[in-house]
Design a protein that fits this description.
- With about 110 residues, the chain is mainly alpha-helical.
- It has a domain of about 50 residues.
- About 40% of the residues lie in helices and about 0% in strands.
- α2 crosses α4.
- The protein starts with 12 loop residues before the first helix and ends in a 13-residue tail after the last helix.
- Bound molecules: heme C.
- Heme C binds next to α3.
Length: about 110
Amino acid sequence: MLSSVNDGPGIPYKKAIMPSGFFSHQLEDRESPGAIKFMTFCMQCHSLPDPKLHSAKEWPAVVVNMMDKMQRKALYKRKSISVPKNEEVDQIIAYLSLHGLRDVVPTPKPLN
Ligand code: HEC
């Protein structure tokens, strides 16, 4: 599996990008269309990111950044890459936002 980052010097780039230890069987709702698109498109360059890496506020920008990488790779044909269609991008963002990190809303406490 593309998981360990402790392989010593010369670790393949692909392994080094993502924090290790997250696998597709750990995904919530893994049969849902959003999860399936997420697995299809988001493991082409690195191992599967844990949806809890980001919150609903952050995921859209992360996915837009990844779209840019995918489009460029596809354009310059450095690697054969499948780029999701707009509605698939929306499904991925919706899935990640639903299952992402919950933002902690600080509750104001009285000082004494
Ligand atoms: C074309 C290759 C490619 C594809 C496909 C790809 N990524 Fe990435 N991803 C990268 C590269 C390169 C990095 C490291 C550089 C960076 O962080 O911008 C990265 C880093 C990340 C990170 C860690 C950095 C951060 O912003 O938290 C996350 C999370 C991530 N990708 C999520 C995704 C998701 C979600 C998808 C699917 C929509 C995806 N990636 C598809 C290339 C790709």
